[in-house]
Structures are given as C-alpha cells and as structure tokens.
Amino acid sequence: MRLSILDQAPISSNQSPQEALHESMKLAEAGENLGYTRYWIAEHHDLPGLACSAPEVMISYIGAHTKKIRIGPGAVLLPHYKPYKVAEIYNMLATLFPDRIDVGIGRAPGGSAEATNALSDNFLQQVWYMPNLLQELLYFLDNDIPPEHPHAKVSASPVPVEAPLPWLLGTSKKSALLAAEKGLSYAFGQFMSDQDGAAIIKQYRDNFKPRKQNDTPQVIVTVTAICAETSEKAEEIALSSLVWGLQRKRGEGQKEVPSILEAKDYLRNERIDLHGEKKQGMIIGNPQQVKESLQEIQVKYNSDEIMIVTITHSPLDRIQSYKLIAGEFGI
Q: What is residue 277's predicted lDDT score, i.e. its pLDDT?
C-alpha cells in the first residue's frame, strides 16, 4: 500500500507564517527520506492558522529541496481561476521538476465568503461550470485541444516532456462520478466527509471511462492520523489538533494550533469533554494501532493509496508521527 502526505501548512501558537512554511518544506524533505509517494499542500485563503494561499509557490520551493517525491496542490481550487493559467503554472513546474508534478483539482472556496468574493466575484457560477472548466484544463495539460475549440491555437507553454498528472479531489458522489466520466484518478477526503465513502468509491470504479489507453481507476483516501510511541502519548499530542478544530467550529477568532498545555487549559476553562470529538474520524494511537486502522480503511474503501494529514503543535511531533507510520509499514 502506498502512503502519502497532505500538508495543510498549520501555524502553531508562537509561530510565524514564515516559520510554518519552512516547517512544511522540512516535512516534505522528511517524507521523501521516509519513502512516502507524494506530498501535496493545501490551498486556503485568509483562514486562521493556515499558512498556504499559493500552493504553486510552495511546490516550487519544495521541489528545489527534494529530488524524487511527487509534489502537487491538494488542491488547486479551479473555480477561482482560468484553466489556461492553471495549466501554464503546472506545466512550468513539470518542466522544472520532470515526472514529479501532480495537479490535485478541487472546487471548494477554501476560505470565507469575503475572501471568495475578493478572489472571484462569480464563484458559485463557476462551480456550476466545473465540468467545463475541468475539461478545458485537461485539454491544456494534454496539449490536445480540439480544432473547433475557441482556444485551439493556444498552448500552455512551456509544454513539458512529462505532463502533470491530474487528480480530482472530492467528498461526494458528484465529484466521484465526474472523475470517472473524465477518466481521472480520484482522491476522496475521508477526513472531512460524513458520507459513505466506500459506496462513493465503488461508484467511481464502476463508472470509470479511461481517458487514455491503459488508464485504470486510481484511488487515494485521505485521513487524519496522529501516531506516537505509545497510545497515551498520541492522545496527548492530539489534544492540540482536537481543540484547534473545536475552536474553529465555534468561530473563536484568529486561532493558531494551541500547544498541549494551552489545549488542556482551554478544555478546563470551558468545561469541555473531548471524548465525543475523538470519534469523528481521527486515527490516534501507537504505530501498530495506526497501521491496523489504516489497513482497515484501505480494505473498506478499496483504495490504492492512503494520504495522511497530521496536525500537531510541535513540528517534531508531526515528523515523528509520519516516521513511526512509515517504519511500521516498512515503506
């Protein structure tokens, strides 16, 4: 089973965005050394505690510090942008870093309504046009535009020797069926979906239409996991992420990821029991426990790859979590 990394570029308390982005680069380096297949970085706009608004910039930075791990956005939020410009950006990256670039494609806004309006006044209309936007992007990435298309005389230069690999990201039947119709690999965000992911992925596989000769359906399932040497330590480390998620759901202002001590103080002051929160899809445990949970997910979802997002206050705890998981799987 392949394992990969999704980085949301979290900002910890007492940490600057610059420091957070530097830690993202160090995570990508560690992921490569540990044998992870790919590293994707998320796109968010003016969201508290998240540092990356321009994945393409970080991908260039990370590509220069790594040699072989596949890199890409998780995801580029296509309704905000013109497909031609997206294709130019990722063709440029694929030229700089041959046979390493993925293009994860999504349709979420990635930020508040105000940020969405600042980026694209007609976002909802563009979401409606998502199938057309996606098809146009694929034409440019494939460098194969039908002669009757309005942009038939345009290429997304530079055209790389190895085109970027597109993935469609989603959490619903709609996105899965669109991926199947377009013959794209599909990444299902289990960590932010309450739907029947196994059924959604089956529909994707059952309806898959190859885009190119020999194409087969490929599935990533993305989960949240925190691993430590003992289950007790993992539970303690996870407090930061759990409390941070709770603060965001409660709309409590500009919040970075709290330290373990800050998380404990918050829970005590607010008189909150996190027992229920821990049941909302996060995998927390020692290496053997986490491995067993990931294997169960792989079987349940019939996935080819598991992508892991890990948010901790300490960057060292985050890298250690990925290290322990990689060691347990022997990748």
A: 56
